[in-house]
């Protein structure tokens, strides 16, 4: 469905993403993890068309989309959420979600109906007619998810949709994400909440200092010495191994 081939992004002297490659088959939930500043959101921005890559190609369903505008990619079926949630505070929750629905539904009544349906799917049904500016952090995260879902994506890019939520809020939203996948939407998610990554993702890619350093099932990736070093620093894998042997 999605093929990212040797994609790089340079900002002046900084190589934010360095020859990153990943491939997604339809129908799964795939994680993209890595330390802060690894280049994960930059990679999302290149996939969704908000930033042009310095090098490399991006293909979606077999078509080269490397130079396409974001709205063209949205029309093809690539939706995304943003790490910093910025709802239209003066509009209602329903009106916010309808902004996304207008991509496929030109008539206001149709866009509003779609918005209401999506709101119920993500647990915002009771909030529909309230101002978006009054939502809690958890509510705003659900609204961001709903706005992207209203574009009826085939591929949904979730950028830290669980960040800032408490454990019970995370527990509540995990089934929502799983339900989206079950309805046929492929999900690529950036996430720091490792409990959620282990519960949700079939496969995980690890980005560190702009480079893909590991890929595979979550449990195997989390035990990879390169991944432990990327998160915890040089020598951490050996220290953990020694501690494990001592406790054993």
TrEMBL record:
Residues 2-234 form the ABC transporter domain. Transmembrane segments: none annotated. GO terms for molecular function: ATP binding; ATP hydrolysis activity; L-isoleucine transmembrane transporter activity; L-phenylalanine transmembrane transporter activity; L-valine transmembrane transporter activity. InterPro entries: AAA+_ATPase (IPR003593), ABC_AA/LPS_Transport (IPR051120), ABC_transporter-like_ATP-bd (IPR003439), BCA_ABC_TP_C (IPR032823), P-loop_NTPase (IPR027417). GO terms for cellular component: plasma membrane. This is Branched-chain amino acid ABC transporter, ATP-binding component (LivG-like). GO terms for biological process: D-alanine transmembrane transport; L-alanine transport; L-isoleucine import across plasma membrane; L-valine import across plasma membrane.
């Amino acid at each position: 469905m999605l093929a990212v081939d040797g994609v790089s992004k340079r900002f002046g002297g900084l190589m934010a993403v360095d020859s990153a490659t990943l491939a997604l088959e339809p129908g799964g939930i795939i994680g993209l993890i890595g330390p802060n500043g690894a280049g994960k959101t930059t990679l999302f921005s290149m996939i969704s068309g908000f930033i042009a890559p310095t090098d490399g190609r991006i293909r979606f369903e077999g078509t080269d989309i490397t130079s396409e505008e974001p709205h063209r990619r949205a029309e093809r079926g690539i939706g995304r959420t943003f790490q910093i949630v910025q709802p239209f505070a003066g509009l209602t929750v329903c009106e916010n979600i309808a902004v996304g629905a207008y991509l496929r539904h030109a008539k206001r009544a149709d866009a509003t109906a779609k918005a209401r349906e999506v709101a119920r799917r993500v647990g915002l049904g009771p909030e529909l007619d309230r101002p978006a500016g009054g939502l809690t952090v958890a509510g705003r995260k659900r609204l961001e998810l709903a706005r992207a879902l209203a574009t009826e994506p085939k591929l949904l890019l979730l950028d830290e949709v669980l960040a800032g939520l408490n454990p019970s809020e995370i527990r509540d939203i995990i089934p929502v994400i799983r339900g989206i996948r079950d309805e046929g939407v492929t999900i690529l998610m950036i996430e720091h909440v490792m409990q959620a990554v282990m519960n949700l993702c079939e496969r995980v890619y690890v980005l560190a200092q702009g480079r893909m350093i590991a890929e595979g099932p979550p449990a195997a990736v989390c035990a990879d010495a390169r991944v432990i070093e990327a998160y915890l620093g040089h020598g951490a894998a050996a220290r953990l191994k020694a501690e494990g042997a001592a406790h054993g």
